[in-house]
Write a structure and sequence with these properties.
The chain is an alpha+beta fold. 29% of the residues lie in helices and 25% in strands.
Length: 182
């Protein structure tokens, strides 16, 4: 299968969340706004990190709207080793109408083929960090970000990570009770 072309405008925004008594690690597909790629908006500046919105099936970022990768965290001794379980990727939209459902289905099938090809080439992923790295590779993503409440030296609230940094972030947040992260 042909590899995905690199997409330097795409990134995965990483977060740990507690919802309904379950901890999860998630990576949401987002993009760095560039008016040349996405058209002009009245609310974004070049370089802003935005979540894609679905407006039409053939839009530049529409296929990535609400797309994420996630895993549950073993806070209750389910796995016995404190690691993530239930690795999955998919869409988490609020509403879906037929044009979007068709677009989502086609995109997920293609993404599944890309991930199967990576599994054939590399074997099954050994950890959630490996799974996230393959998900990103299948989409052409090589950058990750974590939101920081403090303003960073680059003038943003984002900690920028490469694949090794993402792996460190996942390992740090995988235990049931993570310690503060830089």
């Amino acid at each position: 299968m042909k590899p995905s072309r690199p997409r330097p405008d795409l990134l995965l925004v990483l977060a740990r969340a507690e919802e309904h008594g379950i901890a999860e690690l998630a990576g949401q597909v987002c993009y760095r706004y560039d008016p040349k790629n996405a058209g002009g908006t009245g609310y974004a500046s070049p370089g802003d990190v935005l979540s894609p919105m679905f407006e039409r099936p053939d839009g530049v970022y529409d296929r990535y709207a609400d797309l994420d990768v996630r895993a549950s965290i073993d806070t209750g001794g389910i796995t016995g080793d404190g690691r993530c379980w239930g690795w999955r990727y998919g869409y988490r939209p609020r509403t879906v109408e037929l044009p979007r459902a068709q677009s989502m289905t086609a995109f997920l099938r293609g993404l599944g083929r890309q991930l199967e090809a990576l599994d054939t080439q590399l074997g099954q992923p050994a950890s959630f960090a490996d799974y996230v790295a393959r998900f990103a590779t299948a989409l052409g993503i090589s950058r990750y970000a974590v939101y920081s409440p403090q303003l960073r030296p680059d003038g943003t609230h984002w900690i920028w990570l490469d694949t090794d940094g993402m792996r460190d972030w996942v390992r740090h947040h995988e235990p049931p009770e993570p310690t503060p992260w830089p």
